[in-house]
Amino acid sequence: MESAGRFMRLRFRQPALLRSDWKAVTRPLRVPLREPHFLALAGVLLVAAASWQTVMRAAGAIFVKKPVPLRQMLDRFPREVRSADGGRWIALDGPGRDEQLSPEDELLEEDVEKFLGAVHPYRLRGEKSPVPGEKDPADLLLAPQYIQRYYRYVDRTGTEVSPALRAYLFVSYYTGSPDPVPHVPDRCYLGGGFQELASQDVTVPVNGQTVPIRRMAFGKDLGTTNVIYFFHYNGRKSSRHLEVRNYLNNPLIHHAYFSKIEVKFPRLRGEDLEAATVATQKLLTDFLPVLEGQYLPDWKQYEQADGGTSNLAMALVPAGLGGAVLIVVAVLLLRRRGRRAAAD
Asked: Which of 61, 161, 307, 316 is at 20 to 30 A from 35, Cα to Cα?
């Protein structure tokens, strides 16, 4: 029996690692966890994680923005816009026989509009104006909307001044939902098989204000085209979609909207960006007062509600001081440990 027991002990002997002292085995893991600098930094991270919600709540921060309604639905935008020089921009049903729009710019057919209008909350081109005096439903004033029109400019006598002043206009509006502002010609045209030939951010004077625009030229097998656009957001203007995105992601901003105004001139080649810029200046001089004064929100009504910077500062000061104290403690502990190591 004794020999049998010895055999069993030898047969089922534990490996050397398992028979070792667990303290020695786990020492490489336990020693760093007891280091003062590790504990101090872990404390900083713990305090930061625990106080994040409290700090943001105290600062009045908000990540899901409140919607900002339009003054009127975009499909009420006039099909005839008068100019200060007595001329008029008149909306056409489409381009003439001697000019072609790219597939990305074709005006939607009526049956397609009806289908999209039934499936999506968009207010579309709106070739038929709403009934005069009819009040726009509040929910539609908050829904994503866009219009696309094709205008030509004529003088007082109704004569077309220049073929270059035939413009394709696209205006979109978004509010109340997170959106990374992805829909820009820089991406959409490339996705449609075009090649970017030129792009430049410039500014144009419009009614005493400076409007930043991005002008671009694209080429494809059938020829070249020009595109000019900018964003109108929270009472501001920008030609860079990343700038718009970063601004609207500010947690101190409670309300947010953005609108993209895009124009192109099909009778101008893509290389004629200077001529397209001059035509854009003329169009914005006549269209922007109507769009800003009658359709886009009056941002001054919401600007006061988006204060909160002082609240954020008041909330971040205690948190910043607490983090600074922990960092100082960590530094002192490290210096103390270094002195002991040097003394040994």
From this structure: 316
